[in-house]
Amino acid sequence: MANGENAWLDWVRRQQRSARPAGLRLGIGDDAAILRPRGGWEIAVTTDLMAEGRHFRRGVDRPEDCGYRLAMRGLSDLAAMGAEPWMLFFSALWPQNEPPAWRRAFHRGLDQAAKEAGAALAGGDVSSGIQACFDILALGQIPRGQALQRDGARPGDRIFVSGQLGQAAWGRQMLDQGHIPQNPRERQALRRCRRPRARWELGQTLRGLASAAMDLSDGLSSDLDRLCAASGVHARIHETHLPVTGPMLQRKTFLDLALNGGEDYELLFTIPRRRLTDMPNGQDLSIPIIEIGEILPARRAGKPQRLWLETKNGQSQPLEPRGWDALRSHILL
Amino acid sequence: MANGENAWLDWVRRQQRSARPAGLRLGIGDDAAILRPRGGWEIAVTTDLMAEGRHFRRGVDRPEDCGYRLAMRGLSDLAAMGAEPWMLFFSALWPQNEPPAWRRAFHRGLDQAAKEAGAALAGGDVSSGIQACFDILALGQIPRGQALQRDGARPGDRIFVSGQLGQAAWGRQMLDQGHIPQNPRERQALRRCRRPRARWELGQTLRGLASAAMDLSDGLSSDLDRLCAASGVHARIHETHLPVTGPMLQRKTFLDLALNGGEDYELLFTIPRRRLTDMPNGQDLSIPIIEIGEILPARRAGKPQRLWLETKNGQSQPLEPRGWDALRSHILL
Questions:
Q1: What is the DSSP string of A53-82?
Q2: B122: closest CA among B62, B63, B36?
Q3: Terminus-to-terminus CA distance in chain A, angstroms?
Q4: For the structural domain made of A158-318, what CATH number should be given?
Q5: Contact indicator for B68, B77 with CB cutoff of 8 Å
Q6: Shortest distance, CA B29 to any CA of chain A (angstroms)
Q7: Cβ proximity of B107 and B14 under 8 Å
Q8: What is the domain partition of chain B in residue ranges?
């Protein structure tokens, strides 16, 4: 019985030491959780999968990092909508040959992320299998009609990103190669891979200000392409503006990571020119916020190229979406 | 590109032919869906996993049946709370070596179930892997304070179940053995396994009437045990009252399926004696509703036995929870 479902759910419930959060009428233990939304507000709902071999490797990734990162994936989607984190639901197909300690470590990471965001774990489901697979459901609350969408970018709007790009992908390379970080920049990138911090404060600040927003989960080239497709616009970004870290000798590699590396969980957003003076101060939020380009009108004649990269010698070259594709990208295993 | 994530999401969106359902402000295609709950109502939220090798087998189960059954799992949890089906979110780790036709068939089954329940598919996530794994998130709406919980059963309350028990487990045996159904009863059991129909109409009828309710997903012995544990009571059920189908010669087998077989997705509920006359008419709902036993006070002295089965010759014997355990039960693969 000690390793059965009831014992495990008892353990999960005992971890919930904090007071019952606002709006949670009934939590873990019944057929469904019962939530009471704030009157007149809307709810943002998002789900994110994390599968062994695709998004992490056992033996390479620590279970507590996987749990933390999974929660942050959901919280990052809420941030992109400008929503306040509210509730998390967590479904786990646990790896059947790992001891309960592995599950507990995973849960600790997830709980820590939830706590940092002020969200409560309100339910989920559990089973076990050969290939571990997890699904996080994140619910946020947002004042009626104020959600940030992808489809509002207009020609002339400026394009911004938070934080630094390509950090998580660089960290992933180090993890995969078993490379021990040698300096503060490498340590920071590894940490950004293991423990990304979603930008929910920034997202809420952008309500009523950004014309479009989304989170950077698959890589700037693919995510900006989706934002432009949703908004019916084109875009140009400037190589020299991109917040890229790394030894200058390897700049080409780091540029590739910044454009096409996923899992940064930073925000990508557009601000109308007349609102630029209302921009939040990145220093107040302790996050760098960098202008990287501008939205262009969609050109319909000829063979329309949606994204352009202006290189450091002033040339414009087509930028193709080459980030993560959930159904085509390589398997880590 | 045709098999990539964007093309797949375009296909999924094109399936959504129905009008935008009430409360869905923003559906598939942004970082999160935006929902507007009915003023003054509460929300029921549940997630259910379905993993290859655990809950279905490729080659044995048809993908459209898997999709249908997955949606019904979530809808059954909503039924158990007395909630109106509202929105579904669907996360899929698709089997990487199956053609897109497999995914489309799975989706058709899921869409059909959603349509029957009047729920909308509002979002989800997608990836692919070696072992297919799916997670359904179901949201329902329910008038404030009227959710049916597990913890309200009191001594003297009568115990009821809807439908017939053990049908899905019997159907599963036929599927596993490659047995072709030979008569209407076998055909019905196989259909109940492939296409269970959650009882959301009955659940809503039970609001303000049932003292406790839950759905039968893991088997009566385990589910009643959980209901009694949550309510702090014991229970006795009567073998001769159990709605069991099957050749009488094999009654022992069918009794075992009825007590311990999972995936029936019927409702288990308790009604206070003074409210028995207010019981819904099963004929109106086209579902048999059968009284199977009564709630007993919890005996604390000695070695308390929570569940009792009164056999057909009038003897009381201890009933152990032997249904499905998500972390211990056997793997189908």
A1: TTTB-BTTB-HHHHHHHHHHHHHHHHHHHT
A2: B36
A3: 33
A4: 3.90.650.10
A5: no
A6: 8
A7: no
A8: 5-9+38-143, 158-313
What fold, for B5-9+38-143?
60s Ribosomal Protein L30; Chain: A; (3.30.1330)
Grade residue A299 by pLDDT with cuts at 50, 70 and 90: confident
Q: In what order do the strands lie in the sheet with A212-216?
A: A212-216, A266-271, A158-162, A289-296, A234-238, A307-310, A316-318
Q: Cα(A83)–Cα(A203) distance, rounded to whole angstroms?
A: 7
Q: Which ipTM value was assigned to this complex?
A: 0.89
Most B CBs within 10 A among A327, A328, A329, A332, hence the mutation to make, goes to A327
Going by the DSSP 8-state scheme, the letter that residue B53 receives in this structure is T
**Touching check for A203 and chain B: CB below 8 Å?**
no
The SS3 assignment for A40 reads: coil
Residues of B numbered 112-131 whose beta carbons fall under 8 angstroms of chain A's beta carbons: which are they? Answer: 122-131
pLDDT digits (tens, 9 = 90+) for A241-276: 999 876 654 667 888 889 998 899 999 999 999 999
Question: Per the structure block, which two tokens stand in for B289?
Answer: 């509703």
**What is the average per-residue pLDDT within B212-236?**
96
> What radius of gyration, in Å, describes the C-alpha atoms of chain A?
20
Chain A residue whose CA is closest to B39? A39
Top-tier CATH class for B158-313: alpha beta
Contact A137, A40 (CB under 8 A): no
pLDDT level of residue B251 (50, 70, 90 thresholds)? low
Express each pLDDT in B128-141 by its tens digit. Answer: 888 899 999 999 99
Closest CB to B123 among A31, A46, A83: A46
> What does CATH list as the number for A5-11+38-143?
3.30.1330.10
pLDDT tens for A84-104 read 999 999 999 999 888 889 999
CB within 8 Å of chain B, chain A residues 231-250: none
CA nearest B25: which of A143, A73, A229, A204?
Answer: A143
Residues in chain B within 8 Å Cβ distance of A150: 29-31
